[in-house]
Amino acid sequence: MGPPSAPPCRMCVPWKEVLLTASLLTFWNPPTTAQLTVESRPFNVAEGKEVLLLAHNLPQNTLGFNWYKGERVDAKRLIVAYVIGTNQTTPGPAHSGRETVYSNASLLIQNVTQNDTGSYTLQAIKGNLVTEEATGRFWVYPELPKPSITSNNSNPVEDKDAVDFTCEPDIHSTTYLWWVNGQSLPVSPRLQLSNGNRTLTVLSVKRNDAGAYKCEIQNPVSANLSDPVILNVLYGPDVPTISPSNSNYRPGENLNLFCHAASNPTAQYSWFVNGTFQQSTQELFIPNITVNNSGSYMCQAHNSATGLNRTTVMMITVSGKWIHEALASHFQVECGSQRRARKKFSFPTCVQGAQANPKFSPEPSQFTSADSLPLVYFWFLLFLLSDFSCLTSGPSCNERRGLPQP
């Protein structure tokens, strides 16, 4: 005989509904009360200003609250206790006289100092005497003074000296920045920062390093900029140059030479002619020169700060024989024949026209004076005798001076 069958279920619930209910119970949580928090306004505070520690989500059944200095409840570090029902305030051992507590549990601290930096704990006491705590924090920074720069050498010599700039004063939790001629510090292996960026070192200074240096100090609540310190780089002299570059002169002209060399401070100049000292000036002037003034002209540049000397030499030639001014300008000749097209030739002192037609190339030495004019026509006659016809135009006198005769 088989086992007795189970009595029929009068209020049966489908198993799928049971599983759904279990799932909902597992994943559903009743809403929780918002957590007590403390907000610092502002978070970064300038020394001497005030900060408000604002309480959020204070429990509704709160009977009173306490404020402590630090991250934990410590009776020795109690700032103030407050009873909501009676509005009674009781200062604690950590009360400085600068704190004010409000009924909403917020705490105002005035005239803050850097010693006030840190954490503050709010303890809320609820009706069942259960406590809830929250911590807030803030940072106090000084109002930064105007910085200044000290330097170990404000007049360094190029490629020889190094310079250290130091930004003063040394202030904790402060950012130091450097500016050169109004621009942020360029990236260079010769520019090195140290000592928390307070010290800037310029290695093997160059003339391009010269200029105005400033330092700036910053913290989260203030910034200030120093007055400029001028770096004066001593350099040179570089190899001097003599102007004008013309080296050929005629008797009776004035010789006026000018010497210049890049140098800081400005170079001192001396002139030597054929090795003999002439004068200590930047400009050399000799009026009405003769052939005896030919020779080597040396300019020496001296820098008294670097102790360096640089020289350059120019050879000056004063010639005694010159082509007549009219002949030193140029002739224009147009020649041709029945077999050859007509061409125009120009014969300046450099005989450029002769280079264009080698068949007609008089040398400059043939034109030594106005007396040589028949010789010119002799050359033209050669063309006339050789099936050429030529037309000439007189000197245009474009050149104002002649050509020296070798």
Automatic annotation (TrEMBL):
Residues 1-34 form the signal peptide. GO terms for molecular function: protein tyrosine kinase binding. Keywords: Disulfide bond, Glycoprotein, Immunoglobulin domain, Repeat, Signal. Pfam families: Ig_2 (PF13895), Ig_3 (PF13927), V-set (PF07686). The keyword Disulfide bond applies. GO terms for cellular component: cell surface; plasma membrane. CDD domains: IgC2_CEACAM5-like, IgI_hCEACAM_2_4_6_like, IgV_CEACAM_D1. GO terms for biological process: regulation of immune system process; signal transduction. The keyword Disulfide bond applies. Residues 145-226, 237-315 form the Ig-like domain. It comes from the Eukaryota. InterPro entries: CEA_cell_adhesion, Ig-like_dom, Ig-like_dom_sf, Ig-like_fold, Ig_sub, Ig_sub2, Ig_V-set. Transmembrane segments: none annotated. Belongs to the immunoglobulin superfamily. CEA family. This is Ig-like domain-containing protein. It comes from Papio anubis (Olive baboon).
